Amino acid sequence: MNNSDLQTIIGLREWIALPELGVVGLRAKIDTGASTSALHATDISEFERGGKRWVRFTAHLGTLVQRRHRCEAPLVTRKTIKSSNGHVQTRYVVRTLLALGDHLWPVEFTLTCRKTMRYRLLLGSKALMDGKWLVDPARTYVQEKPQTLTSPGAQ
């Protein structure tokens, strides 16, 4: 494996940032079995800005130390999701930039309650394909932790 291969590999868990939402230092679980990415959010409300639909929500960012961050994002759509346990739920979908390592690309997230889950953010297969990542499930935290809201050399 050469050095350029290492830049496209991620592990089962990685540090990410959502710069447009003001979120840094969030641990994500990589889930190739889920097509859609999901973000733990509560207090979700829809509103209008400039003639477009938006959502306002509280993102929950920590597991051991609870951190909350109030966010706003344009509403992409609402989507019906069937979870792995068969539960069907309609969720809001937002699109925002995701920073992983030195890559930066737009990802769609469904907003849902993940309070019983260890990871507040799940990165699904659509986001992985868009980001052109290869997943090595035997590894974790392969990429450098995004340090700032605007990563130098972001792609």
Automatic annotation (TrEMBL):
GO molecular function annotations of the record: peptidase activity
InterPro entries: Asp_endopeptidase (IPR008503), Peptidase_aspartic_dom_sf (IPR021109)
Residue span(s) of domain Retropepsin-like aspartic endopeptidase: 9-146
GO BP annotations listed: proteolysis
Keywords (A to Z) from UniProt: Hydrolase, Protease
PANTHER family, alphabetized: ATP-DEPENDENT ZINC PROTEASE DOMAIN-CONTAINING PROTEIN-RELATED, ZN_PROTEASE DOMAIN-CONTAINING PROTEIN
Protein name: ATP-dependent zinc protease
Species in which this protein is naturally found: Stutzerimonas zhaodongensis
Lineage: Bacteria, Pseudomonadati, Pseudomonadota, Gammaproteobacteria, Pseudomonadales
